[in-house]
Amino acid sequence: MFNKTMRKGLAAATLAVASLGLSAGTVQAADTIKVGSFLSVTGPASFLGDPELKTLQIYIDRINAEGGVLGKQLELVHYDDGGDAQKARTFVKRLIESDGVDIIVGGSTTGATMAAVPLVEQAEIPFISLAGAVVIIDPVKKWVFKTPHTDKMAAEKIFEDMRKRGLSKVALISGTGGFGKSGHEQSLAVAPKYGIEIVADETYGPKDTDMTTQLTKIKNTEGVEAVLNFDFGQGPAIVTKNYAQLGIKLPLYQSHGVASKSYLELAGGAAEGVRLPAAALLVAESLPDSDPQKPVVVGYKTTYEESTGSDVSTFGGHAYDGLMIAVDAMKRAGSTDKAKVRDAIEQTRGFMGTAGVVNMSPEDHLGLDLTAFRMLEVRNGNWALAE
């Protein structure tokens, strides 16, 4: 019940609105749909967060220029966590409690994403992560979704390719950060399914600048037929260079964590012949015209490169997919009601993104299968479809 002071305050507020020539209805109509985001735009994971943020900015501006969503403009509320999980948690708390965002599309790294998960689950706000590890959506968390292929899928795609090439004895080297650690665990878990035997297992830290000791052990391990490096950032480029310096001639595989031009630039000529699973985005123009994904990846690549002057990466593509899935869900829900939007995201079917065709369900908050991955090879300093 209003007391006298509260009534006076309300009257004053009403008068203030009237003096601006605005009605309550006009104020309401001016509301925006707030898209919250926390990304690693600076720091060691900036190669992830920078193209992700640029993508969100480009396409939110484009959507707004075309009339917005549900008659409202989108507003991006963004924070740079610098790859720090604790900062990510702080910013997500702010997005929810202070900024009042309608949905969150972000989380460049697995560590930052997992720090956010308890908060979005408690607040019951839909969250589409842009990070890689399978733990983000397995087990399924009601309010959490993601767009990139998982580390488990990457391991399966790599081992599938190795099996086709008659390779079965594999050495594993991985980073000890969240992504590398998870990729290591998933590789060990799925290897038997593909008849792969892990005969050597080495790791390195995020600040290590030389991996010759670990690679020398691998080189001297009897029976090794191929090597898999699971990590992202500078580590894989260092591994690739050391690999060449040691004269190791075995096939070298990397994970989708290196699917950007920065890896090619850092590794240089040492990357020639390296194979990895990645989204079709990296070889957009090489896809046959009959490929239904070609218009999407070529369209995104063209828009991104023309807008930024930078080479496209699969990481920016993850942000494109996350934003478009969110917008599509809002349109189908006919509302920004968080529960309705969550349900609509979970009901996403046949959505063609840069990562592949997305078919989500209550049991699958990613919606991609192995066919969404293309096996690529570094050829003449660039990405090419593996033969």
Number of strands: 14
What is the name of the CATH class of the largest domain? Alpha Beta
Structural class: alpha/beta
Shape: globular
Helix fraction by DSSP (H/I, runs of at least 4): 40-55%
Count of spatially separate domains? 2
Spatial separation of the terminal alpha carbons? 74 Å
**Largest sheet, described in full?**
5 strands, parallel
Name the CATH architecture of the largest domain. 3-Layer(aba) Sandwich
Q: CATH-wise, what's the superfamily of the largest domain? A: Response regulator
Q: Point out poorly predicted stretches.
A: 1-30
Helix-strand string: HHEHEHEHEEHEHEHEHEHEHHHEEEE
User: Mean pLDDT, nearest integer?
Assistant: 92
Question: How would you describe this structure to a colleague?
Answer:
With 387 residues, the chain is α/β, with parallel strands linked by helices. The chain folds into two domains: 30-149 and 295-368, Response regulator (Rossmann fold, 3-Layer(aba) Sandwich), CATH 3.40.50; 152-278, Response regulator (Rossmann fold, 3-Layer(aba) Sandwich), CATH 3.40.50.2300. It has 13 helices and 14 strands. The protein has helices at 4-19, 24-29, 46-65, 85-97, 110-123, 151-164, 178-190, 212-219, 234-245, 261-267, 294-308, 314-333, 338-346, and strands at 33-39, 74-80, 103-106, 127-129, 144-146, 169-175, 197-204, 226-230, 252-254, 275-278, 351-352, 357-358, 374-379, 382-385. The chain has a five-stranded parallel beta sheet, with helices on both faces. Strands 7-6-8-9 form a four-stranded parallel beta sheet. It has a three-stranded antiparallel beta sheet with strand order 10-13-14. Strand 3, helix 5 and strand 4 form a beta-alpha-beta unit. Helix 9 (234-245) packs parallel to helix 10. Belongs to the leucine-binding protein family. Residues 1-29 form the signal peptide. Residues 32-367 form the Leucine-binding protein domain. Keywords: Amino-acid transport, Signal, Transport. One of its GO terms (biological process) is amino acid transport.
